[in-house]
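Practice problem 4.
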């Protein structure tokens, strides 16, 4: 049967297109108008898509060589590695009204948070952030839509907790086992709040690497009292890989059982033998290839005409911020055709850290806190964007110093005060010895939100894992302005507002022992922040992403500095929200665990403190509080709100707040006044 020359040409063109694109096909499982077609300002109506993106990548291409263990991944008949990820897309129906930027929300352990953070949307139940937003309150005030952004989430983490059924996740292959398995040691540390008999090997409900040989002599369980404490080996006949089910012990390669149970607030650490890990770096490759497809391809499945997406900004909160830093560091910001992927990244509340996102047997959820997840590859050198030399090890490196200029995005490193106390944030912008301010990238900014916790709590704030109410200082208003500024920066080159961070050279950062904390009655001040150490994971870690020492060798600590404070206990520099400029309380980036959650002299993870001023002079004198009372500071509510408005206007003029948000900021300050002055006993 004869084949026409046209048919041959069409077939050849299709094969060439497939060879040039890592996205092989898309399955759309849901498509609907957002809120029934509600218009968002001049941008108009939005629509949403949910489905799965499938990829095929050539393991021999230079851009894919950055994926650890890709050479051991199974390949199809064409010699390509297949993987997939689910996605959510929320876009203007009329792309001619869009602003030309896709804003990528890097998921946090499967969750999607851009609408709750930027739009001030409200979640529906504990797992809403992993579900399909469908109600008015999910979209908040519509900020991102009215600005014309195209919103995209793509799963990058394979081991997302099973209970996040529709959360963002990737589907990556295991390394091939052809009778010669890839073996290694996996480490799991944990503590429990109540005595329990068995516990998962994974972090916070994630999917665990199963033990490959339960009887291997390498399997060891230890217990210690503190992070730096002496490990005590628990005899092998007292524990096993098992779980309790209906009061019966059942073998389980993903859980550990201890005779008599694990004791509360002890640090347990099990090291065990595993084999054939997933090729987890393919999750980052999927992000890369999806963004590249939206910028340079023709994703017609989504009614996106070619050329209507010109730019991409990656946004990440906490773990996702660390993910974006590593994404660029490891070379993923160059696609298979050697084109820039993200034009800008916003690594928010990530501190100076990265994580286990592209290593063998990597556990992406593992981070570093004062009392959980110790010595994982998180708070490790290098810390600054530009290169520095560690005087102890002699190693010279920077997070972005080896990234070619053509692939280097504009970069925000933004963070709260908690990151100084709980994530070693001073290392982000000081020299390694902690004595001077470090140099900055020309296309980088560092923004510190003074007197804030990891994520702001609603008002009035609850008491959760700490001894004090959580910190409600809402710096998300500043992040809205800085997002708009980032978009201008990548669109027309208008520089973002200047960096604002604490300077060691101006004595705005000191050791914890040198903080001038006022003796507020009933408040214990933390003596030790989270410390980052020089950690040795073995000779193959830096070159190949393979940990061969478990537990790793822990060397000398890096110098850690924290914010200096004024007579009220509030920080003295950096970016301060209007309610910190005209304060009603002390706002800190630290809180100490209450007895239900941990040792009461240890900083509680993610939490800051909200410590209201005395309401009256009489109350101040009666309690012995050294801070002036509210009535001694302000003549009236009207005068107080005038000061808040004045501070807001100044921040708008500097580019750190938006004019359109002023009314809401002042209104919130008024509500806080009413609560503290008129509503508190």
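Answer key:
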């Amino acid at each position: 049967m004869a084949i026409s020359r046209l048919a041959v040409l069409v077939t050849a063109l299709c094969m060439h297109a497939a060879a040039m694109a890592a996205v092989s096909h898309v399955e759309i499982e849901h498509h609907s108008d957002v809120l029934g077609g509600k218009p968002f300002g001049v941008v108009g109506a939005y629509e949403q898509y949910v489905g799965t993106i499938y990829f095929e990548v050539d393991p021999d291409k230079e851009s894919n060589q950055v994926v650890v263990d890709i050479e051991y991944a199974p390949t199809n008949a064409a010699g390509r590695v297949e993987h997939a990820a689910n996605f959510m897309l929320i876009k203007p129906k009329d792309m001619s009204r869009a602003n030309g930027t896709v804003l990528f929300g890097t998921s946090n352990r499967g969750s999607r948070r851009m609408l709750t953070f930027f739009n001030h949307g409200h979640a529906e139940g504990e797992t809403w952030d992993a579900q399909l937003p469908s109600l008015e309150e999910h979209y908040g005030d519509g900020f991102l839509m009215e600005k014309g952004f195209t919103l995209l989430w793509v799963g990058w983490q394979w081991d997302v907790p099973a209970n996040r059924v529709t959360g963002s996740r990737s589907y990556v292959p295991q390394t091939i086992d052809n009778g010669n398995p890839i073996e290694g040691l996996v480490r799991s540390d944990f503590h429990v709040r109540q005595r329990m008999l068995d516990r998962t090997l994974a972090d916070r409900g994630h999917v665990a690497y199963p033990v490959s040989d339960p009887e291997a002599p390498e399997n060891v369980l230890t217990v210690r009292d503190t992070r730096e404490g002496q490990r005590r080996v628990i005899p092998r006949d007292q524990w096993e890989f098992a779980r309790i089910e209906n009061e019966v012990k059942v073998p389980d390669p993903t859980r550990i059982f201890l005779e008599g149970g694990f004791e509360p607030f002890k640090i347990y650490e099990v090291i065990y033998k595993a084999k054939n890990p997933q090729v987890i770096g393919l999750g980052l490759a999927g992000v890369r290839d999806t963004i590249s497809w939206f910028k340079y391809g023709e994703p017609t499945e989504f009614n996106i005409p070619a050329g209507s997406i010109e730019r991409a900004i990656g946004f990440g909160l906490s773990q996702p911020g660390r993910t974006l830093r590593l994404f660029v560091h490891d070379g993923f910001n160059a696609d298979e055709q050697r084109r820039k992927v993200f034009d800008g990244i916003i690594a928010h509340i990530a501190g100076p850290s990265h994580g286990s996102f592209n290593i063998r047997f990597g556990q992406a959820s593992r981070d570093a806190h004062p009392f959980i997840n110790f010595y994982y590859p998180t708070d490790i050198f290098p810390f600054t964007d530009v290169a520095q030399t560690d005087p102890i090890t002699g190693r010279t490196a920077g997070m972005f110093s080896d990234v070619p200029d053509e692939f280097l995005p504009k970069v925000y490193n933004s963070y709260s005060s908690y990151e100084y106390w709980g994530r070693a944030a001073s290392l982000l912008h000081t020299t390694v010895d902690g004595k001077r301010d470090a140099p900055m990238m020309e296309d980088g900014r560092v923004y510190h939100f003074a007197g804030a916790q990891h994520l702001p709590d609603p008002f009035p704030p609850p008491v959760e894992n700490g001894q004090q109410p959580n910190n409600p200082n809402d710096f998300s208003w500043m992040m809205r302005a800085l997002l708009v500024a980032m978009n201008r920066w990548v669109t027309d080159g208008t520089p973002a507002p200047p960096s604002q961070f604490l300077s060691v050279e101006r004595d705005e950062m000191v050791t914890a022992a040198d903080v001038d904390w006022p003796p507020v009655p009933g408040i214990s001040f933390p003596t030790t922040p989270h410390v980052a150490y020089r950690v040795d994971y073995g000779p193959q870690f830096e070159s190949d992403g393979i940990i061969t020492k478990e537990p790793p060798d822990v060397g000398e600590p890096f110098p850690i500095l924290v914010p200096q404070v004024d007579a009220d206990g509030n920080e003295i520099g950096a970016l301060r929200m209007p309610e910190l400029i005209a304060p009603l309380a002390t706002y800190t980036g630290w809180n100490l665990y209450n007895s239900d959650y941990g040792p009461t002299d240890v900083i509680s993870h993610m939490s800051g403190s909200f410590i209201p001023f005395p309401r009256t002079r009489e109350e101040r004198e009666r309690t012995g509080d050294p801070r002036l009372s509210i009535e001694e500071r302000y003549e009236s509510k009207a005068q107080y709100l005038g000061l808040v408005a004045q501070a807001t206007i100044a921040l708008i003029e500097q580019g750190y707040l938006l004019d359109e948000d002023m009314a809401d900021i002042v209104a919130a300050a008024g509500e806080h006044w009413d609560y503290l002055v008129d509503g508190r006993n």
